C-alpha cells in the first residue's frame, strides 16, 4: 500500500492543544501519586514501628531533598484534584464544547499553579 499522506514521527514538532496537555498531566500526576503513596506508607510504617524509627523519619523529612519530594507529591495531588474536579464538572454537561474545554484547561492550569506555589511556601 503506497500512501501519499505525510507522516510526522518527530513528536517534538507536533502541536497539541491545551486540553491534551492537561489530560496528559492528569494521567502523569495519577501515576506519581500511585508511586508516592508507597514511599509515604513505608515512612509511616517505619515511624510507627518504634521510637527510633520515628526519629529517623523525622530527621529524614527535615532534609531539603525530602522536602522537595513532599512538595512534588503535594503538587501532583493538587493538580490531580483540580483536574478531577474539572472532569466532574464536565460530567454534569458544563464546558463540553471546544471553547469550554479550552477555558476549563486554562483554569485548571492557573488554579493548580497558584495552589502548587502555596504548597511550596507551606512545605519550605
Automatic annotation (TrEMBL):
It comes from the Bacteria. Keywords: Cell inner membrane, Cell membrane, Electron transport, Heme, Iron, Membrane, Metal-binding, Transmembrane, Transmembrane helix, Transport, Tricarboxylic acid cycle. Its main location: membrane. The keyword Cell membrane applies. One of its GO terms (molecular function) is electron transfer activity. Its cofactor is heme. Belongs to the cytochrome b560 family. Part of an enzyme complex containing four subunits: a flavoprotein, an iron-sulfur protein, plus two membrane-anchoring proteins, SdhC and SdhD. The complex can form homotrimers. Membrane-anchoring subunit of succinate dehydrogenase (SDH). This is Succinate dehydrogenase cytochrome b556 subunit.
Amino acid at each position: 500500500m503506497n500512501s501519499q499522506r505525510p507522516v510526522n514521527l518527530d513528536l517534538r514538532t507536533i502541536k497539541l492543544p491545551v486540553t491534551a496537555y492537561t489530560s496528559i498531566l492528569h494521567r502523569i500526576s495519577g501515576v506519581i501519586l500511585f508511586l508516592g503513596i508507597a514511599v509515604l506508607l513505608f515512612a509511616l510504617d517505619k515511624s510507627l514501628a518504634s521510637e527510633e524509627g520515628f526519629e529517623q523519619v523525622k530527621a529524614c523529612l527535615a532534609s531539603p531533598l525530602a522536602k522537595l519530594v513532599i512538595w512534588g507529591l503535594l503538587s501532583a495531588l493538587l493538580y490531580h484534584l483540580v483536574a478531577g474536579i474539572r472532569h466532574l464538572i464536565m460530567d454534569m454537561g458544563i464546558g463540553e464544547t471546544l471553547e469550554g474545554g479550552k477555558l476549563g484547561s486554562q483554569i485548571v492550569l492557573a488554579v493548580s499553579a497558584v495552589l502548587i506555589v502555596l504548597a511550596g511556601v507551606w512545605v519550605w
